[in-house]
Amino acid sequence: MLEATPLTEGWVLRHEGEGLPAAVPGCVHTDLLAAGVIPDPFLGANETEVAWVARREWTYETELRGGAEGHEQTDLVFDGLDTVAEVTVDGQVLGRTRNMHRSYRFDVTGLQGRLSVRFVSAYAEAEAVRGRVGERPAAYPEPYQYVRKMACSFGWDWGPTLVTAGIWRPVRLESWSTARIARVRPLVTVEDGVGVVELHVEVERSRVEAPLAVEATVGGARVRGEIEGTAGVVRLRVPDARLWWPRGYGEQPLYDIELTLVHDRDALDVWRRRVGFRTVRLDTSADAHGTRFTLVVNGERLFARGVNWIPDDVFPSRVTRERYRERLGQAARAEVDLVRIWGGGIYESGDFYDACDELGLLVWQDFPFACAAYPEEQPLRGEVEAEARENVVRLMPHPSLVLWNGNNENLWGFRDWGWEARLAGDSWGEGYYLGVLPRVVAELDPTRPYTAGSPWSGSWERHPNDPAHGTHHSWEVWNRADYGEYRREVPRFVAEFGWQAPPAYATLRRALPGEELAPDSPGMLHHQKADDGNGKLERGLARHFALPKGDFDRWHYLTQVNQARAVAAGIEHWRSHWPQCAGTVVWQLNDCWPVTSWAAIDGDGREKPLYHELRRLYADRLLTVQAREPGLVLAAVNQAGRAWTGTVTLRRMSVQGTVVAEAGVEFRAERRAVARVAVPRELEPAGPKEFLVADADGLRALWFPVPDREMAYPRPEFDVAVAPGAVRVTARTLVRDLLLQADRLRPEARADRGLITLLPGERVTIGVSGWENPDPDAARAALYCLEPTA
Predict the structure, then answer these.
(1) Residue 207 above 80 pLDDT?
(2) Which end of the chain has the lower number of beta carbons within 10 A, N or C?
């Protein structure tokens, strides 16, 4: 039987003639940080102090002592090398690598000695390739498109420039005899209600020819098949297989597959995975509104409630199985059902997809291309196909994976960002997105749909970002317009949109120690990577609020309110237009370091108000008031599996809390449907002293007719009481967008809810964890809400 031995101990990193202790998996930055050679690049402006690390060559070394005895062959297997490396044993070259997204295997049978992995600077490699293939345009000045490496390690508009190197995924020795399983490609489908698994097996033989067979089991089914040469196929049927569903639509049953390679009666190697039985297709048919982009799972059409995912740490080797589960658990608790792995990052580890399988989170997987023209010449072209082939097969067992996407914004960039003229006919990636990648997916994984890019209208006959066709990225709003402009369009699928806000206060205090915080203080500016980011934040605030002068705490609160409001404006509008709009994917769920960004969860894992707002926006049932012609409309959005009927209570109220007019309106929203009810004209609020309240089944929608800076809010008054694990607030006036910033009580403290609007006499209990000594004065000091404009 194949024996695997982890090779994680005894590694050193060569630095200035010394051997520093090295963690494998890991990277140069984390090893230098652990050794005290560099400061923490996440703090202050230390990022710039460690820029030299990316420009050097680095060598990792350990002793190779040989594999397990009694086997014919021993392989040295690297699951990931970042990125351009030469691997030697006592000076004998085993091989060279140039792709972070691939694994590597070297025959080391009989070899012992000093194992060295020497990494060339990724900058040196990228600049050399650029010199050979020519200049290509990109959204950022760094040369990330010339090397197959995590693009965002070169910096992004939310990320630091920390270009890594190292053995970033596990390494091991594998010793085997006769043959080993080289690859298993599982096609998992449902045919006429029966679960079907078709296993395409490839083997590698040693120097000994021998008859081989495979035995496979899943869900009580068992089958045996012969290996002809180096390949074979076995097919299993599971008649009573239960369907795997996205969260909110059903359960997530998973089945263990075990495939054993045998010679005579001897087991040579075993391959084990978990699978789920489900069907998925992408409806891109034409209709009266344009071209659909609707995911269909097990025959059920979905409105995708999504978030974009970036690497959870700029040093991805630090992201553990537990951290994946924590972050994805946060997504699930926010009622998210789809996670898009964005193309400037990586193919995540199996731990990510395992968690999504168990949580019922659909995965949209970008191939790693983002915001640049990518050369199609060698050495890149061969690397692109090799990495695609490996990762398509690696990820195929996961039922959560439902969509392959060719790239992020490159088709759009070619058309709109001046690339076409600058390229003057040079290759730029189109051959990947419309040629290589769809061919690889069609050949290896025909059970899943592929789309050429995001955004993509489906044809060059239309603009790539045409909202009426396919996927759409809505960035004009954040960059130039008020978020009310979201309501001007109904895209078929909004794959990116978002609004910035700073991280939690405790995150800023940790990341910027000793700094007097201000929107434009040195550390705040260094941790704001977006072009004119603070200017856009300020202009966005000014459209809705009186700008706070010299009051950082107020600015911090209002920018977080504005982020939640902006995303809510988009999602409420687009969900109310289901099925014309079939999904929203918020930019973004997470951060890779402490930074002002579009994230709902900051770089220290703290949840912004936007996170809690997503729980409301993405719930199965949502009430929202929308301005339509000729007047206001109440939309009851019902994504649940059964009809929603009831009476909505509409109240036209004054800001002082009196009811001006009231009515009950019946509604019925069918399963997976939206009911729209016209608001009677006499209930529409008039001017800055009135607003509309809609209540049904414990849900509430509010409509304010003018921006907050024009509303005649009373000065908020409320009472505060505390108890272990709770803060209770009772409103004596209208209290708009009350927020408990629990991390101001204690950095470890968390609140279980975000922004809350209370009518006079209403009470809310906010759960607080991590705060052992409740204090009412401290609680009051950590409570923020809107105040009347002076």
Answers:
(1) no
(2) C
